[in-house]
Amino acid sequence: MDDFGKRALNKAQTRLNVLDTVYRLTNTSNFRDLKVKSIVEEIGITEMTFFNYFQKKEDILKYMMGIWALDLMVLQHRQPLTGEKAIRRVFSHTAEQVKKHPRLFANFVASLLTSEITPIANDIEAADRFLLYPDTPELYEVKIPSGNEILLKHLAEIEPTRDHMDTLLRLASCFYGDIIVAHTAGLDIDMLYSSSLDLVLQSGIY
Q1: Which of the residue ranges 27-31, 104-108, 119-123, 195-199 would you say has the lowest mean pLDDT?
Q2: Residue-wise pLDDT tens digits, 129-167
């Protein structure tokens, strides 16, 4: 903790508080209908303070996906996997998050479709990483790979000599599309992801 100033830690805690509050509020309401005023009242900060951290409400979704990518980096650090097993862990971890916060992840995909946000996740600052993972200081300054970078790396581990962009697009279609199908049809995201991965990874592409 001595490596981080009080200001940096306070900022990090506020960002995490915002995300936790949005997680909680969207369990019963739609993210699109959620007002910044409701978020800040729950936390006890001003709207001006909120906009010091997030330029717009939708940026919370990009921060959420930055945390998602950080989680995956820590998982890989603690228990390295390669190839298909690693790819399946990416999807199983995502499924866990989708089941915890189905409305929010559905709104994340919808916001991508309407160009309210870009698919580039927020970088997660070192102080935020410390608060989430105090036992992994070796990762505080490491670049967090994007979802595409993670998947391409593991696809190359399966077959290093091939161009994997087509397979990556298929995986991206599963990643985003299955979230919407699970949300709208009331289906289990684990089942959808598993079936989709079986089709993509075991259909003779390799």
Answers
A1: 119-123
A2: 999 999 999 999 999 999 999 999 999 999 999 999 999
Domains, the chain: 6-201 (1.10.357.10)
80-99 per-position pLDDT tens digit = 999 999 999 999 999 999 99
Q: How many CA atoms lie within 13 A of 21 on its CB side?
A: 21
Phi (first) and psi of residue 143, to 5 degrees: -65, 130
CA-CA distance, 84 to 197, in Å (whole number)? 9
- Say if residues 132 and 67 touch (Cβ distance below 8 Å): yes
Residue 97, number of CB atoms within 10 A of its CB: 19
What are the tokens at 83? 């190839």
DSSP 107-160: HHHHHHHTTSS-SPPPP--HHHHHHH-TT-GGGSSSPPPPHHHHHHHHHHHH-T
Tokens 């940026």 belong to residue: 59
Beta carbons of 122 and 53 less than 8 angstroms apart: no
- For the chain, the average pLDDT equals 94
